[in-house]
Design goal:
Elements lengths: L1 E8 L4 E2 L4 E8 L2 E9 L19 E8 H7 L12 E8 L5 E8 L4 E3 L4
Parallel strand pairs: 1-7
Antiparallel strand pairs: 1-2, 3-4, 3-5, 5-6, 7-8
């Protein structure tokens, strides 16, 4: 239970190991950094972003450094590149449930959904 994320690199067909991610709480236009981390070999954080006792009802933001990740992988990106940072704003209405926020990403597209 709690909050987790997972990033899959659809260009290379695997986890986005080494991608930088930042988690924020949001209130209106104000965002407060909770933590910044780097995804592990499986494209996940090493620990839950929030566990079931610390996740609260409210709004959150995950920011994924997509361009930095693909540059580090040696992908030649145009200047300016199409995607730089992918920002996902989402709400947690039921903190007693698990919120999993996966990201499927390439240098030119992304998709997300509420996973389980």
């Amino acid at each position: 239970m709690g909050l987790s994320t997972h990033v899959l690199d659809t260009m290379h067909g695997g986890p986005a190991a080494g991608m930088a991610v930042a988690l924020y709480t949001t209130q209106g236009d104000t965002a407060t950094l909770v933590r910044a981390f780097t995804l592990n070999h499986d494209g996940r954080s090493d620990a839950p972003l929030y566990d079931s006792t610390t996740l609260k009802k409210g709004t959150y933001r995950l920011v994924f450094d997509v361009a930095g990740y693909f540059r580090a992988r040696g992908v030649a990106l145009p200047e300016p590149n199409f995607l730089d940072k992918v920002t996902l704003d989402f709400g947690v209405a039921h903190p007693d449930q698990h919120y999993h926020v996966p990201l499927l990403v390439s240098p030119w597209s992304y998709s997300t959904y509420r996973g389980s």
